[in-house]
Amino acid sequence: MPENKIPQVTAKRLPLYYRYLEKLHAIGKQRISSADLSDVLHIDPATIRRDFSYLGELGKKGYGYNVTYLLQFLRDFLKQDEVTNVVLVGVGNLGTALLKYNFYRSHNTKIVAGFDKDPNKVGKDVDDIPVYSMDRLSEVIKLHNVEVAILTVPLNAAQSTAEFLISEGIRGILNFTPARLSVPPNVRIHNIDLTIELQTLIYFLKNFPEDDLGENGKETLTKEES
Ligand SMILES: NC(=O)c1ccc[n+]([C@@H]2O[C@H](COP(=O)([O-])OP(=O)(O)OC[C@H]3O[C@@H](n4cnc5c(N)ncnc54)[C@H](O)[C@@H]3O)[C@@H](O)[C@H]2O)c1
């Protein structure tokens, strides 16, 4: 698997391809062209071809991609058969919404528990996901083999909570707080900042109102920030 050579922007699009290919496979479709994928996913066909070229020889030019083969390839590549358990810390407004959402479009990620320091939140399930006190974190992440956490605590609690999570073995944090976290180099942080996304959108609308949007017009949060 050429996993290490794949650019992050491509890696982020692979689950989109995977989900759509699963649908095609379910209805018995055997071949798909990059143009057809482009129409549905709103990703430029050249980008799709480039993405797939990182994965090796998957299709002949002008002949399209074999859906079953591509799906199997992406399943292995994305390890879709393995479920990754995730915890969420900070079951407030945003945390509760994310627990309810629970990444239902992905078969391979699952929030197994929420954590909060507020005793009023503890012990109350959110859509069948249990909410524990922080002192249960160590036990729960060991039990479910968790290495990824979603952070939705207030800004002033973000750094200390991240440090606690890391000390308990968390290696990846999806950070919804505005804090820019300082973490050891072996820990990966992905920042999701809706304010920046909204401001960027408004900036482009104001400054380039007549632009042919091209690929920029199709940007989503899956775009790599860096
Ligand atoms: N990224 C975004 O686009 C976006 C959008 C909205 C909110 N936010 C951020 O997400 C965070 C949560 O926002 P919210 O509106 O849900 O806030 P909230 O106050 O409703 O929820 C925060 C929760 O964290 C808990 N908490 C506080 N300190 C804690 C600690 N040390 N350990 C464990 N739990 C703790 C609180 O008890 C509360 O339940 C904030 O940092 C906010 O700025 C981000």
UniProtKB/TrEMBL annotation:
GO MF, one term, reads: DNA binding
Q: Please explain the role this protein plays, according to its UniProt record.
A: Modulates transcription in response to changes in cellular NADH/NAD(+) redox state.
Tell me which Gene Ontology terms the entry assigns under biological process. Answer: negative regulation of DNA-templated transcription; response to redox state
Q: Mind listing where the DNA-binding region sits, in residue ranges? A: 16-55
Give a yes or no for keyword Repressor in this entry: yes
Q: Which UniProt keywords apply?
A: Cytoplasm, DNA-binding, NAD, Repressor, Transcription, Transcription regulation
Q: Where in the cell is it found?
A: Cytoplasm
Indicate the segments forming the CoA-binding domain, all copies. 79-180
Write out the GO cellular component annotations: cytoplasm
* Family membership noted in the UniProt record: Belongs to the transcriptional regulatory Rex family.
Q: Which positions bind NAD(+)?
A: 90-95
**What is the designated name of this protein?**
Redox-sensing transcriptional repressor Rex
Whichever gene encodes this chain, its name is rex
Q: How does it assemble?
A: Homodimer.
Spell out the InterPro entries in the cross-references: CoA-bd (IPR003781), NAD(P)-bd_dom_sf (IPR036291), Rex_bacilli-type (IPR058203), Rex_DNA-bd_C_dom (IPR009718), Tscrpt_rep_Rex (IPR022876), WH-like_DNA-bd_sf (IPR036388), WH_DNA-bd_sf (IPR036390)
